[in-house]
Amino acid sequence: MQLVIVESPAKAKTIEKYLGKDFKVLASYGHIRDLPPKDGSVRPDEDFAMDWEIYSDQRKRAQVKAIADAAKNADRLVLATDPDREGEAISWHVLDMLKKRKALPTNVDRVTFNAITKGAVTEAMKKPRALDQDLIDAYLARRALDYLFGFTLSPVLWRKLPGAKSAGRVQSVALRIIVDREREIEAFKAEEYWSIIANFEQDGTPFTARLVTLDGKKLDKMTLGDEGSAMAAKQAVEDGRFTVEGIETKPVKRNPAPPFTTSTLQQEAARKLGFSASHTMRCAQSLYEAGAITYMRTDGVQMDQSAIDACRDAITDRYSAEYRPEKPRYYKTKAKNAQEAHEAIRPTDFRKDKAGSGDEARLYDLIFKRALASQMATAQLERTTVTLTEGSGQHSLRATGQVVKFPGFLAVYQESFDDKDDDDGGLLPHMREGDAPARKSVEANQHFTQPPPRYSEASLVKQLEELGIGRPSTYASTIQTLRDREYVRIEKNRFFAEESGRLLTAFLERFFPTYVAYDFTAGMEEELDDVSGGRAEWKAILEAFWKDFKPKSDEVMEQKPSDITAVLDTFLSDYLFPERADGKDPRFCPLCDQEGRAGGRLHLRGGRYGAFVACENYPECKFTRRFAQPGSDADEVAEDAVLGNDPETGLPVERKTGRFGPYLQLGEGKEAKRASIPKDVPELDLEMALKLLSLPRIVGQHPETGNDIEASIGRYGPYLRHDGKYAKLTSTADVFDTGMNAAVTLLAEAAQKGGRGRAKAEPIKVLGKHPTSEAEMKVMPGRYGPYVTDGTTNATIPKDVKPEDVTEEQAIELINARAAKGPAKKKKKAPAKKKAPAKKAAAKKPAAKKAPAKKAAAKKADD
């Protein structure tokens, strides 16, 4: 029997079908081992010795045992993991684990294939090789480097930057890119400019022309900088009679883009399909494992010659001969590391223009069209420029148009871009020199220069690639980590830096400037590529890094948190305390000013729950402003204030700011009543404050039960409650306005939805079939949180995993782990203990002596 090891169950199932009964194919479920998440897993003082442990997940451990048991009975071990550094590393881990368990077969081979098709797999089996030690060394170097960076720097953050979470080598630099763009936007000052557009008509066809020359002088974008000059220019165009002075027509050629790499696939899927980088890679993984596309982690742009031939044949079958160029197109990769530059992402069969379903089908369509277009004919366009001049020759207008003479590859695919420039317009009417088109109107349009746009996932991936930071296969996880740690948020498909992200970036720029420098991080990636290419020694790279990084970390660790906060107070002063429109000191304390205290100035402070802005007159002045909390607003003035006195008790009603935001307080000490201030309260005055403090409100007695119906605001928003059952309300206003009839109706509707007649919840995500039960797996919303199910077994999704990001592999692991535990046991009340008779107790003594022997036998079995 020959044992083949791959990463995923789907891949294993497909390959076993291709290889036949003499082969047994098992999945490792990705990596089987990792560095333990504790100090000392990488030891620089011991020549960078590294400890590895098998993942604690029960499913992983069971699978490792299954691999080891199968290996003991195998004649040959074939390591067929993915053809990249991570794939090589998984094979190395499996090999090392089997060696330590003395389960390694005599014959061990490594095979790779770029596509999971019968031809590619069977051909690969004929060409085995040894493991590539250079790729393994590059993996070891990168893993050790990331571990040393994270496990050395994160404790510094926890102790010196309260509220900070952690920092990663590549993630920190990606975060800096987003923060730098935020700073550019804040520093940007808009400039006014105007454009003059004339609307003409020629032979019934309308077209527009822009003013390009005024009073004999050529205009640039910013020449008309105010309304006065714009109106004068508009008048000059309205007063003149313009005729066609010149017509220039130029042929333009456009060539297709190469097939997708990992990076360009992520960018185009984000633009055209709205996919996140992580979702794109999940869909691509499924398509690869189904044998529909070639390997999706690649920086190569070339296609195999047989694929090029098949692609050209498909073009001939679908289009006329002119769409197929005379010679094939060959593209060159920009990747420096030839060992990791694989074939581009393409369909495995150009006869199939559809594969998969849902989002996978949409992604396949994109991959298919891009690959097909890459071998198609050049697009032939014609760009026309018409110059219209006023009689005196002092003023001129220009109209541009473009027409496609032959679409070529554009018939299939056109590349998209995040931020498009103005195009050349559509088709212009036929005109000759001396023609005087009819002028219909003239417009003076005001414009303002725009700041650079915030990054989208596509443009961030492009920027990371251009800077040489990280590698395409890591972009998805890098971006996801920034979101998970709440250093950034996404609004309208654009990245916004959270204050916590800005604070972390400021800390790293000020105290660890080298390690968040773009050129340093890019240079480190090149060094790691040199290792995988056999041009550098991995431990030498780690030694050089550690030699400088460790002393720097120790130096910062010795500083007082207050000293670090003082440095950041200065470093972030422009952001924290921008210039005020009233000319006052940006640091002046509004509460001190309100209460007549002199000398109150604001400074950045560090507290148990993170950084905040406070007055130097503390404790006399209790002004605070939140900072570095996800979703907080630096401009929010959350000062304490007395709104008035409660007419019933005479106690002051105060607006305060706490750890979780603004709240109301009536009275002092333990007897004080408090209430959060909802975000949808339009204006907070004493009347509204008293209404919030008075909650819950009794709407009335339910007509059927006679029990109270309450309206209030809870952790999940406004609600109605009756006899332990709830109904949601839309807004805070509804808490005070909802009457009896509406309340009874809402509670009845909520009860219907919650009962047996409730409509079946829609799945958050639909995955593939479970390899054992063959049932479709779904991610579902649940009363106690999201879960994954195959219809028989329900498994809770961990809190640190977003339900929409659950992969098929994770789902299988969760379901199998839950199934292995068996059905949930109901807790039973323990019966009262009875004192055993003396004789029975004595009878049990000999059995007790045998316990050590049983324990020893169990230990031997575990070994």
UniProtKB/TrEMBL annotation:
Q: One Pfam match, by short name?
A: Toprim
Annotated segments matching region Disordered: 334-355, 786-805, 814-863
Q: Which SUPFAM superfamilies match?
A: Prokaryotic type I DNA topoisomerase, Zinc beta-ribbon
Q: What is this protein called?
A: DNA topoisomerase 1
| UniProt keywords, alphabetically | DNA-binding, Isomerase, Magnesium, Metal-binding, Topoisomerase, Zinc, Zinc-finger
The active site lies at Y295
What is the catalytic activity of this protein? Answer: ATP-independent breakage of single-stranded DNA, followed by passage and rejoining
Q: Source species, please?
A: Alteriqipengyuania abyssalis
